[in-house]
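Appendix B, record 7
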Amino acid sequence: MYSKSKWRNKEWKNIVDDVLRTGGNRKNSVKRIIYEFMQDQKVHVEYIQEEFGIGGKGLFFDSQKYAVWFNENGIKISKGETTQDDSMDSVLINWADVCIEIQKMLAEGVYKTQNILDQAYDNAIKELAERIFFMKREIVDEYRDILDVILKLNDHPEKEYDQIMPSNMDQLEEKLRDPESSKKLGNLLKYIALEYQKHPEIVRFHFNSPDKICQMYERFALKRNGFHANSDFIWKHPDIFITQDEIDEFLRRGGAYEDGKFKIYSFFLLHKDKTVCSNFLKDRYGIGGCSHALCGADDSGADYNAKGLVLKRSVTGKEISIRLGWPMVTDRVSYLIQKEQFLTGKEYLKLHDYEARVMADHVITFYHRLPEDIVRPFEDSIFYDQTKREVYKIINSKTKFSKLLSSMKQDLQKIPKDFEKVDETYEKKERLLNELQGYRDGTYTLFPFQKPEKKEDVMSWTQMNLFDFI
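Structure tokens (predicted):
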């Protein structure tokens, strides 16, 4: 058990304060937090919770490891390498108390040194200018011309649009620093945001959408008060380590490929041999890597090859890493599956949909490289997803699926048992058909832990991507 108030005890308060001084997992997180508290308004909870997001980190205090994890409930801190154990050596601080404690440290001059406090304003300008810069690049050319016409009709000089919102980062920062120019820029952002709500097509992509950028500017423009650090205040970032929670969260992503998480989950349920599972993971991950590997932390990454998985993270220029061989990764994935910690509740609800889509792949693969005179029960399209959607609907209609299986049995009899073309063989086609038959009859499933539920006659298509699993 952990306590929601124990963090105020002297034993824990210094640790909690130091954790809060490290900020979230994104670059310049502390500077954004400071700038947020510089504004007069007192509502910071939602902003701070979003700044931290969901993730964690590992910190050393007096040579003792402390695992940190933040989510919608607040920040949990535990002695050791994980926050998942319900031990007495844990505390939880909710987001309201997080804001109160940060505000208190800032007021007392013991949150950050003066040079960091002074950088908060410059960082806010730099980040906002960057977002405005990228938003402007995504506005379609036709709308830029319309803006110039509108501004000219309202007694603005020609090309006022580029004067108010320059395409140069340094000039944008200068505009934001000057009160009058900043106000003009804010008015233009508000106008573009209103137009965007009516006509989203004015931008090519929506990551830096005008309405988001306008909200950022409005928050940036709020009246601010500075903070002063105590002249004798000194603070050093604690040494870091990679927690078990961060490792588990990375493994739960299932690699970089679509549906990788479900493929791994299914394979581990169907195969109990550790070596087989280890080789599967090695092949599944392949050779490569990714950034933001540890809960989206900016200064983290992953590399994987035939030897195993390397997770790394850096802070204040110092990098640490941990290497996990594929047998170790296999053991941990098996543990997470056994403890029902590999999938989320929402992902369990998607298992039947995933299984149906795999069966659609089975049908398409069955007809792959068969003689052209064998009629396909679907429209063969150069767009695989379009064909898969069509077959998916057949799979989830009891009547149509039964007719499809009958046709496939007849088509299998049309090819010789020694059929072989590239990587397609008679035996493979027969196996696919048997699995489809078993799936229809309820005797075959990709997830043997449970009895297949009765399927509805019609199911909707659900397209998943990597972001469903982060």
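Remarks on this record: The two ends are 27 Å apart (CA to CA). Residues 114-138 form the longest helix (25 residues).
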